[in-house]
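User: My notes are a mess, but here's the protein and NAP's SMILES. Can you give me a structure?
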Amino acid sequence: MYTFVTGGTGRVGSAVVDELLGNDHTVLALARSDASARTLDKAGAVPLRGDLTDLDVLRAGAAQADGVIHLAFANDFTSPDAIARAVAEESAALAVLGEALAGSDRPLVIVSGTPAVPGRASTETDPLPTDGPVGGRSRAVMAVLDLASRGVRSSAVRLPRTVHSDGDGGFAGMLTDIARRTGVSGYPGDGTQRWPAVHALDAAVLFRLALEQAPAGTSWHAVADDGDEVRDIAAVIGRRLNVPVEARPQEAFGPLGPIFATDQPSSSTHTRQALGWTPAQPSLLKDLENIQP
Ligand SMILES: NC(=O)c1ccc[n+]([C@@H]2O[C@H](COP(=O)([O-])OP(=O)(O)OC[C@H]3O[C@@H](n4cnc5c(N)ncnc54)[C@H](OP(=O)(O)O)[C@@H]3O)[C@@H](O)[C@H]2O)c1
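Assistant: No problem, the inputs look usable. Here's the predicted complex:
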């Protein structure tokens, strides 16, 4: 299959590109810089120069492909304004990709996040939250899933809070960055809230399976670890960096503080059964042992 990928140089996207190329796909990949184009070329993909705001480039990429996987996102969580800009940019890009595929029955696989449900692990049928700093991302995802009624085989792979590789990535990686900066491995609240996780290589397999098999309008959970207590994550980070492990107020974690403080375990039972997805990589707590002081 000739697949157009956005975000193909990121932690998740580079794993997706490798997974596709290793399984008889060819890849056309959006590249917003010469450096990214070189990386993609070296990986074996065909770079398509442009960024998420180049809507004509996105339209052309989708038009010539048998399917699209969208992962690009300006992961700038430094302020509410920066988050809002990133969400608006992605929403406009998704609308163009969806329109380009309408009526073709070709697949459009997009990235989403696992929702939090009080008191239990969330499942693939739980709705996405449309409030909070990234609520707009959920609305864009739902608009794409609705394109099922307009001849797009749309699906969403919901990633857990941490997609990791080499001991880094996602929320756990942000905790590590904060610990390096402040000299304290902090966690919000009492640290018993649980965050789900997946290794980037396992997530990449699920993106490929969704591209190949997912029925239109469906959502899938790329969850390998249902939920690690955040204080256990902070404990490994503190040990690896040789810094103390302490509870910190939620406000110390910036605009994402409320999400950091939420108990949000998640399950992938349906995904594993329906798509035959079997995560095989190390768990988050094992992978965090790769953190270097
Ligand atoms: N990592 C996680 O734990 C996690 C968890 C939940 C959801 N997600 C979501 O999964 C997706 C991929 O995550 P990731 O960790 O792989 O992200 P990442 O490592 O930060 O990579 C972001 C990718 O998007 C590209 N990109 C960013 N802004 C762009 C723009 N304006 N135009 C074109 N390309 C742009 C980057 O290109 P350059 O290389 O050229 O900068 C890069 O390929 C994102 O949507 C993210 O929000 C990730």
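The chain has a mean pLDDT of 96.
User: Great, I'll file this with my notes.
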